[in-house]
Amino acid sequence: MSFSPLTSACSSLGVKSSSLIVQLGFHTAENNKFPGAFVSSPKRTKTKKFSIACSSTDPLLVKAARGDPVSRPPTWMMRQAGRYMAVYRKLAEKHPSFRERSETTDLIVEISLQPWEAFRPDGVIIFSDILTPLPAFGVPFDIEEVRGPVIQSPIRFEDDLKALHPIDLEKLHFVGESLKILCQEVGGHAAVLGFVGAPWTIATYIVEGGTTRTYTTIKSMCHTAPNLLRTLLSHLTKAISEYIIYQVESGAHCIQIFDSWGGQLPPDMWEQWSKPYITEIVSVVRNKCPKTPLVLYINGNGGLLERMKGTGVDVIGLDWTVDMADARKRLGSDISVQGNVDPAYLFSPLSAVTKEIQRVVKCAGPRGHILNLGHGVLVGTPEEAVAHFFDVSKSLNYDGSSQNHSMEESKLG
Fold first, then answer.
1. 257 has which bridge partners?
2. Which of 137, 286, 107 is closest to 197 using CA atoms?
């Protein structure tokens, strides 16, 4: 199966938004040579693991995650709510503690809905943090203005493991309550997204005592105290699995697993110290929640794509350093992808944003793609650019013509 038509088409794309579908040519014979074209796509084995077939009421994002046919790529953004929005900054002035904002049901719901009310994305992700569940299984932490997360009692010795206990989901009631309310507020018009940190990434904070640029303590532990580290990772795996199931039972349609610092490991080390624990999480969650798509995102994942696929997740999140067409070639057509516009593009002229969205969507193909940034929204990003990103995405149509976007060229010059 050749990918050269897709690659060359991606590299030469520079078309007007109103003519996007003609340029994509998803129904032409030439494009039937690569995975994703509707006419030639084989039935995807990936969907077989879902016990109930996708219904007409499933959100667009869930359908795309499963690889089902959709009319356009669903869109959301990592760090969708946050400091780039004036309404968030105003709320943060009134509630300066991040822990308060991310652990108070009313505030979680209000902040999560801010981008929904402004942009109507296809996914509404709960406002939270990957460290939020730590106190629920015995690891208290603080967030300082300058240093960020701080864990006063890092786990580095066998005796330190005594502080750990099974996750107490009652201590995370605000997460479940918020997800239930978000489902009611969104009302089926978008997918409600939950998320967790992967065991390795969570362990980096617990071992290092907070954020780090070098990861020397935990990387050394792989060799100096491997049994201790395995015990910690196993404990985190069980806790995170239960936390995901709790989020799904509270209403989350889809869960993203952030192995944010997995890319700091050499691929063979990731294979040993991160992949098995993510794979176990996927297996446990799949058994309990067979209809819930799971997304795996790693920052700096270019050297890990094939290994990521081996975890069994439904969607691979791509950062912006990976070429979308190359990722499709490496991953094959039996898994969905998410991404991967460079967040810095949102500081560019809107016409450049439009062209980059077109390029990414074309390279991804019309099946199994969730449009997103390749990382979170950057602080200082113009809200106008975020609005434009969503407007362009909604104008796309895989099997028709671009809707209501022909006026963009006159606006953008």
1. 196, 296
2. 137
What is the set of domains in the chain, with CATH numbers?
79-317 (3.20.20.210)
The Cβ-side half-sphere exposure at 326, using a 13 Å CA radius, reads 12
Q: Is 398 left (phi over 0), alpha (psi -120 to 50) or beta?
A: alpha
For residues 79 and 376, what is the distance between their CA atoms, to the nearest angstrom?
Answer: 5
275 confidence band (pLDDT: 50, 70, 90)? very high
Closest alpha carbon to 122 in 77, 74, 80, 78:
74
Question: 219: Cβ–Cβ under 8 A, 6 or more apart, which residues?
Answer: 265, 269
**Distance in angstroms (rounded) separating the CA atoms of residues 258 and 313:** 12
Give the E-state strand segments of 198-319 in sequence order: 254-258, 294-297, 315-317
Query: pLDDT tens digits, residue range 283-324?
Result: 999 999 999 999 999 999 999 999 999 999 999 999 999 999
Instruction: Determine how many CB atoms are found less than 10 A away from the CB of residue 413.
Output: 7
Listed residue (279, 390, 296) closest to 337, CA to CA: 296
The conformation of residue 54, written as its DSSP 8-state character, comes to P
Spatial distance between the Cα atoms of 52 and 265, rounded to a whole number of angstroms? 37
Return the ∠ at Cα 313 (arms to 129 and 174), rounded to 5°.
30
CB 308 within 8 A of CB 229: no
CA distances from 232 to 131, 278, 401 (A): 15, 14, 52
Nearest one of 186, 199, 183 to 249, comparing CA atoms: 183
Integer distance in angstroms from the first to the last C-alpha of the chain?
39
Residue 410 β-bridge partners = none
Whether 117 and 388 have beta carbons less than 8 Å apart is answered as no
Q: Any idea what DSSP says for residue 47? A: G
In the chain, the percentage of residues whose pLDDT exceeds 90 is: 81
The CA–CA distances, whole Å, from 310 to 86, 198, 221, 269, 305 equal: 41, 15, 25, 15, 9
386 vs 390: CA distance, rounded Å: 7
